[in-house]
Amino acid sequence: MSNAQSTEITDSGELIPVNPAIESYMRKLVVHTDHPVLVEMEEFARLENFPIVNRLVGIFLETQTRMIGAKRVFEFGSGYGYSAYWFAKAVGERGRVICSDADARNFARAEHYLKTTNVWSRIDFCVGMAQEVFAQTEGLFDICYNDVDKVGYPEVWRMAKNRIRSGGLYIADNVLWHGRVATETSDAAAESTAAIMEHNQLIFDDPEFDAFINPTRDGVIVARKK
Ligand SMILES: C[S@@+](CC[C@H](N)C(=O)[O-])C[C@H]1O[C@@H](n2cnc3c(N)ncnc32)[C@H](O)[C@@H]1O
Fold it and tell me: What is the pLDDT of residues 2-53, one digit of tens each?
């Protein structure tokens, strides 16, 4: 294992931006959970190879949400509600998390898992293309969170950036794309890599936002609207 490498390969063959020993150390710090359904949701992801944010990123999302007192969150690409759980927990009883996913099976899964928690009543789950759901949803948001198919990242950024209140956050997952943004290798994911690189550059070049990338797991960008 070389510290000079931009990515490392885990025992399971997964490419991750952070040294696996450090990622593993951080994961061990967050083994305690406040609801057993999270373990079930994580197990489903493992068995089905479904790309949810992990516990570390979930807690990061919760913390960011609490830090700005967010009450209204829009999720582009909610899967079956794992990331939404962390947002919904953080927005509190009067908060709303608007979820969107193109696959109706994910709505059923989200309901199955999250109706056992006190956060389900804070979630409006819309089945459909996230960009269309967003366009049909009025108002400003405290947080817009992007986790759709990666080729859609620049479009979602352009849509979302004007609908975030001053002091609010744009957050997107997978912005290091298993390190491919740094290595620029041409492979099957080249189109996604190019889209993510364009997305990241647009954000860092935008004078209306301050941006930062947390390299945890696959990289999470946080951009705060000035
Ligand atoms: C990476 S998964 C989301 C995981 C979820 N955010 C989590 O961490 O728990 C991406 C999801 O977005 C959905 N998706 C991808 N592109 C979409 C789009 N443009 N509109 C709606 N859903 C989309 C897929 O069906 C998939 O469930």
Answer: 333 445 544 444 456 788 899 899 999 998 877 999 999 999 999 999 999 9
72-114 pLDDT, tens per residue? 999 999 999 999 999 999 999 999 999 999 999 999 999 999 9
For residues 219 and 200, what is the distance between their CA atoms, to the nearest angstrom? 11
Which residues are CB-contacts of 30 (< 8 A; sequence separation ≥ 6)? 55, 56, 59
Radius of gyration of the chain (CA): 17
Which of 86, 101, 126 for a ligand 1 pocket mutation test, highest count of atoms within 8 Å of Cβ? 101
| Domain ranges across the chain | 35-225
209 Cα: distance to centroid of ligand 1 (angstroms)? 25
Q: Is the pLDDT of residue 174 over 60?
A: yes
Give residue 12's pLDDT: 42
What dotted CATH number matches 35-225? 3.40.50.150
Ligand 1 site residues (CB inside 6 A) read 51-53, 77-79, 82-83, 100-103, 106, 129-131, 147-149, 152
Has this prediction a pTM greater than 0.85? yes
Tokens for 38, please give them. 């999270």
